[in-house]
Design goal:
The complex is a heterodimer of chains A (348) and B (304). Chain A is mostly helical and 348 residues long. Chain A has two domains: 1-143; 149-304 and 327-347, no CATH class. Helix content of chain A is 76%, strand content 0%. With 304 residues, chain B is an alpha+beta fold. In chain B, 18% of the residues lie in helices and 28% in strands. Chain B contains five helices and 13 strands. In chain B, the strands form two sheets. A seven-stranded antiparallel sheet of chain B has the order 2-5-12-7-8-10-11, with no helix packed on it. In chain B, strand 10 (240-243) and strand 11 (246-247) form a beta hairpin. Residues 1-7 and 18-41 of chain B have low confidence and may be disordered. Classes of the chains: A mainly alpha (348), B alpha+beta (304). The interface between A and B is medium-sized, with 32 and 24 residues.
Chain lengths: 348, 304
C-alpha cells in the first residue's frame, strides 16, 4: 500500500481510539468509533481478494449497525435524562441498548457471528489490529458506564465464554481459532466489569499481550491452518518450543501470565456471591483450553512426517521482525509473579 | 354498477386479481437486458416450465413427509453436535494432520448419482443430450450423450452446444449450506477415462458475501481416450477465475476453505456423441508443488 495512505489510515485508527478515550460526550465517543471503523476498512480490503472484500463488508455492516444503535441509545438517554454525559447514565433502557451495541462492536456472544468470518478473510497483521486495537475504544466506553444491568452482563459473559470455547472446537483455520479465543476472553472481561473495572482492564491488557504473541508466531510461520504449523519445528525450533507456552497462557494455565486475570476474576466473582457463575466460567474455559492444546499438539508435540520442500527455509534468513515477538512472548510467559502488585493496584 | 360487481367477487378472487395485477406491471429494465434475480435461490432454470401457481396454491402439506424431514434434520443436527467432540468436522485432529489424500466423490451405488445434476443446452432450446448412469461393475459413473452445436432458434442465441455435470451443494441440518474445506490440500486428483475430448473443470466457491454470483474457477481436463484409465492431477494454483464463461482480468488464487460444487463441462464445438467415465474425484496434498498461483497478477493502469 502507498506509505502515505497507510500512515493516514493508521493515524486515523489512533485518532479514533484516542477521541473515544478522551470523550465524555456520547456524540464524540460515537465519532471516535466511526473514525476507527472507517480507517480500518481500507486496511482490511487492501489485498482486493474477494474474501478480503467480504471481510471488510461484513465488518462494516456489523460496526455500522452497532454505531447506529449506540447513537440511538445515546439520543434516547439524552431525551430521558437531559444530558449526554457518558458517566451519568441512569435510565436502564439506554444503558441496555448501549451495552448491546458495544457488545456487537466488540464481538461478544450472542452478537459474535461476524467475528470468525471477518478474521478469516484478513491477513494476519490486519487481524491483529482488529483483535487488539479495535477492542480498546468500545471497552473504554463499557468501563465508564455505571451499569446497573448486572444480569445481562453476566449472561453476555457466560455466553461468550461458552460460544468461544464451543465454536473453536470445530476449527482448523488458525484465524478462526483466534477469533473464538477473542470471544472467550472478552467474555471473561465482561463478567467482572461491573464488580471491578480495573480487573477487566487487566484482563484486556494480558489478552492483548498473549494475542500479540500468538498472531506474530503465526505470521512468522506464514501459517493459516493447523497443518501448516506442523512444519515449523524444522524452520524455527525455538519458537516452536515456546509457542505451547503462549497457547497455554491463552488457555489460562498457571504459572503463566494468562492465569492471572482468570484467577483474579474467579476470586472476585466468588467474593460477589456468584460461585455458580465462577464455576461455569471456569468450566467453559476448559473448552478453549482443549483447542489451544490441540494447537500445541499439532505444532510442537508431534513431529510432522512430511518434510518441507527443499532446504531453502533453513538457508534463507527470514526478514520479519522478531523483536516484538520476543518482547510479548517473554511477557506472556513470565508475568505471573507480578500478581501481588496487580492485586494491590487492581482490586482497590 | 361497479359497486355491485365488487360485491359479487369472492375474497379469494380479489386477492388473485391483485396478485395478477402485480405480475402484469411492466418491467422497468430495457428489453435487451434480460431480467434475472440477484438473490440466490430465485433462479429459474431455463427449460423448466414457468410455474403460474399463486403462492398459497404451492403449499403441499404432507404430515408423514414432515415427520420424516424432522427426524432427518434432527439426526443431522445431533451428528453435528457430537462430531465436534471427535474433532474438527468430525475427524480427529490426527487425521487432519496426517491426511494427504481424500476421496470426495466416488460412484459406488445409485445413491451416489443423486449427488450430481446434469444439464445441457436443451434448457435454452438446443439439441444436446446428456445422461448419467453407473458404469459397468457399478464402480464408476458413466456420463454420455450427444453434443449438438446447432443454436436454438430464438433469434438471439448465436452459439450453443454444451453439456455439463455439476455436483449438488452439500447441505447440513435444516438445509443449511455446507462447504468443503480443502485447505490442507493443493491438488485435485481424478481418475477418468474419456474419449479424447477436452472438458472444463469448474470449481464453484461460496459467492454469497464475496465474488459475483456466477464466479467460477476453471481449468481444462484433456482426456486421452483409449481403454486405459487416466490419472489427472491438477493443482489448485492452476485454476483461473471466470464469470459466466469469460475469463476475468482480476485473477487471484482460489481459496479452498469454502468450496461448494465441482462441475465438468463439455463445449468443444465438435458435434457428436461423447462419453466420460469417472472412477473417483479426490483431493491430495502434493508436497512437491510449491506454486501459489500460476498466472501473473499484474497491476493494470500502473501509476507513472
Amino acid at each position: 500500500m502507498n506509505p502515505y495512505i497507510l500512515s493516514i489510515l493508521l493515524f486515523g485508527l489512533g485518532l479514533g481510539t484516542m477521541t473515544t478515550f478522551a470523550s465524555s460526550h456520547w456524540l464524540l465517543a460515537w465519532m471516535g468509533l466511526e473514525i476507527n471503523t472507517l480507517a480500518i476498512i481500507p486496511l482490511m480490503a487492501q489485498h482486493h481478494h474477494p474474501r478480503a472484500v467480504e471481510a471488510a463488508t461484513k465488518y462494516f455492516l456489523a460496526q455500522a449497525a452497532a454505531a447506529a444503535m449506540l447513537l440511538f441509545a445515546s439520543t434516547t438517554n439524552a431525551w430521558l435524562t437531559g444530558q449526554w454525559d457518558i458517566q451519568q447514565m441512569t435510565h436502564p433502557f439506554p444503558i441496555t441498548m448501549i451495552t448491546l451495541a458495544l457488545a456487537l462492536k466488540v464481538g461478544l456472544a450472542p452478537l459474535h457471528a461476524w467475528l470468525p468470518e471477518v478474521l478469516q478473510g484478513l491477513d494476519l497483521t490486519t487481524g491483529l489490529i482488529l483483535s487488539t486495537w479495535q477492542k480498546l475504544a468500545p471497552f473504554s466506553l463499557l468501563l465508564q458506564m455505571q451499569t446497573s444491568n448486572s444480569t445481562m452482563l453476566i449472561l453476555l459473559g457466560l455466553a461468550s465464554t461458552l460460544v468461544g470455547g464451543w465454536g473453536g472446537l470445530d476449527q482448523t483455520q488458525l484465524r478462526k481459532i483466534l477469533a473464538y479465543s477473542s470471544i472467550a476472553h472478552l467474555g471473561w472481561m465482561i463478567l467482572v466489569m461491573q464488580f471491578s473495572p480495573s480487573l477487566s482492564l487487566l484482563a484486556l491488557m494480558t489478552y492483548f499481550i498473549m494475542t500479540f504473541s500468538a498472531f506474530l508466531v503465526f505470521k512468522l510461520n506464514k501459517a493459516t491452518n493447523i497443518n501448516s504449523l506442523a512444519s515449523s519445528w524444522a524452520k524455527m525450533p525455538v519458537i516452536t518450543s515456546l509457542t505451547p507456552l503462549i497457547l497455554l497462557s491463552l488457555g489460562g494455565l498457571p504459572p503463566l501470565t494468562g492465569f492471572l486475570p482468570k484467577w483474579l476474576i474467579l476470586q472476585e466473582l466468588t467474593k460477589q456471591a456468584l460461585p455458580l457463575t465462577a464455576t461455569l466460567a471456569a468450566l467453559t474455559a476448559l473448552l478453549s483450553l482443549y483447542f489451544y492444546l490441540r494447537l500445541c499438539y499439532a505444532m510442537t508435540l508431534t513431529m510432522s512426517p512430511n518434510n518441507l520442500v527443499g532446504t531453502a527455509p533453513w538457508r534463507l534468513p527470514s526478514f520479519q521482525l522478531t523483536l516484538p515477538l520476543a518482547t510479548t512472548t517473554t511477557m506472556t510467559i513470565l508475568l505471573l509473579p507480578l500478581a501481588p502488585a496487580a492485586m494491590t493496584l487492581m482490586t482497590i | 354498477m361497479s359497486l355491485q360487481k365488487m360485491t359479487r367477487l369472492r375474497p379469494v378472487r380479489l386477492l388473485s386479481s391483485i396478485h395478477q395485477q402485480q405480475l402484469l406491471l411492466p418491467s422497468t429494465t430495457a428489453l435487451s437486458v434480460p431480467r434475472r434475480s440477484v438473490i440466490q435461490g430465485e433462479y429459474r432454470r431455463p427449460g423448466q416450465p414457468r410455474e403460474n401457481k399463486l403462492p398459497w396454491q404451492k403449499i403441499n402439506f404432507d404430515f408423514s413427509k414432515g415427520l420424516q424431514g424432522i427426524k432427518k434434520h434432527f439426526a443431522l443436527l445431533k451428528k453435528e453436535f457430537f462430531d465436534r467432540w471427535v474433532g474438527p468436522q468430525g475427524k480427529p485432529i490426527l487425521e487432519h494432520m496426517l491426511e494427504q489424500n481424500r476421496v470426495i466423490w466416488e460412484f459406488r451405488g445409485p445413491e451416489c448419482l443423486e449427488q450430481w445434476t446434469l444439464s445441457s443446452d436443451r434448457e435454452i432450446g438446443g439439441q444436446s443430450e446428456i445422461y448419467l448412469k453407473l458404469g459397468k461393475n457399478t464402480n464408476t459413473c458413466f456420463l454420455y450423450g450427444t453434443l449438438s452445436s446447432v443454436p436454438p432458434r430464438d433469434g438471439e442465441t448465436r452459439y450453443s452446444g454444451y453439456c455439463t455435470m455439476r455436483s449438488k451443494q452439500p447441505l447440513a441440518a435444516f438445509d443449511r449450506k455446507e462447504h468443503y474445506d480443502w485447505t490442507s490440500f493443493n491438488t485435485l486428483h481424478l481418475r477418468v477415462r474419456g474419449d479424447g475430448r477436452p472438458w472444463m473443470i469448474n470449481l464453484a466457491a461460496e459467492t454469497y458475501f464475496s465474488h459475483q454470483k456466477d464466479d467460477i474457477y476453471s481449468y481444462f481436463l484433456y482426456t486421452r481416450g483409449g481403454p486405459y484409465w487416466q490419472d489427472v492431477k491438477i493443482p489448485f494454483s492452476k485454476f483461473f477465475l471466470t464469470h459466466r464463461g469469460r475469463i476475468q482480468d482480476d485473477q487471484h488464487p482460489v481459496w479452498l476453505d469454502k468450496v461448494n460444487t465441482i462441475g465438468f463441462t463439455l463445449g468443444d464445438k465438435a458435434d457428436g456423441p461423447f462419453q466420460l467415465e469417472i472412477d473417483f474425484i479426490g483431493v491430495c496434498k502434493d508436497y512437491a508443488h510449491t506454486e501459489e498461483f500460476a498466472y501473473e497478477v499484474y497491476k493494470r493502469n500502473p501509476e507513472v
